[in-house]
Design goal:
single chain; 179 residues; alpha+beta; Rossmann fold; 6-stranded antiparallel sheet; 6 strands; 27% helix; 21% strand; globular; binds adenosine-5'-triphosphate; binds magnesium ion; Chromosome partition protein Smc
Length: 179
């Protein structure tokens, strides 16, 4: 369960913006272009999405606040997500797990798992098979329902593998075979 999302310099959010998510359903409403989809992009980004297209960007820099008429562009985008892990779903021995991702205009990236620097891979592995991974059904963007319906059997199988929790083992096996 998501508890808190903090954005600094991510897309249309220059100032630190905090979303506290309580139990139940949270809906985000607002006029076109106000930044609703940017919020779900931020969640996917911090969960380890490394491709730019699914997050509606051409290059990583597109995720850094690019400035407006009266506000200067920023040099860094930062997203922090706090998750409830009291049920231990993430396989980590903490009641609360925080992940953070930073990207600098210079091209440098930083990732943190509970405030400790880590690799992108560590974040991706933490969420693989939890239903929250970057490629899963937990975030369905505009147009994706159609994609699932018209997916090939192979692509659809991927979703089932993730849902049933075997994707992690399959990925590890593939990596072991590569060596
Ligand atoms: P809709 O209701 O049409 O789906 P939305 O609320 O989902 O709209 P978003 O797509 O989240 O809106 O936000 C689009 C806005 O974000 C645009 O105004 C765009 O200029 C702004 N934006 C995107 N990337 C950046 C960036 N790097 N810097 C500044 N603003 C950005
Ligand atoms: Mg939108």
């Amino acid at each position: 369960m998501l508890k808190k999302l903090e954005l600094v310099g991510f897309k249309s959010f220059p100032e630190k913006t905090t979303f506290e998510l309580s139990d139940g359903i949270t809906a985000v409403v607002g006029p076109n272009g106000c930044g609703k989809s940017n919020i779900s992009d931020a969640i996917r980004w911090v969960l380890g999405e490394h491709r730019t297209k699914p997050l509606r960007g051409e290059k990583m820099e597109d995720f850094i606040f690019s400035g407006t008429q009266n506000k200067k562009a920023m040099n860094m985008a930062e997203v922090t997500l706090t998750l409830d892990n009291s049920q231990g779903h993430l396989g980590l021995d903490y009641d609360e797990v925080t992940i953070k991702r930073k990207y600098y205009r210079s091209g440098d990236s930083e990732y943190f798992l509970n405030k400790t620097p880590c690799r992108l891979k560590d974040i991706q592995e933490t969420f693989m098979d939890t239903g929250l991974g970057k490629d899963t059904y937990s975030i369905i963007s505009q147009g994706e329902i159609d994609k699932i319906l018209s997916a090939s059997p192979y692509e659809r199988r991927y979703l089932f593998e993730e849902a049933s929790g075997i994707l992690k083992h399959k990925t590890r096996k593939q990596e072991a075979l590569k060596r």
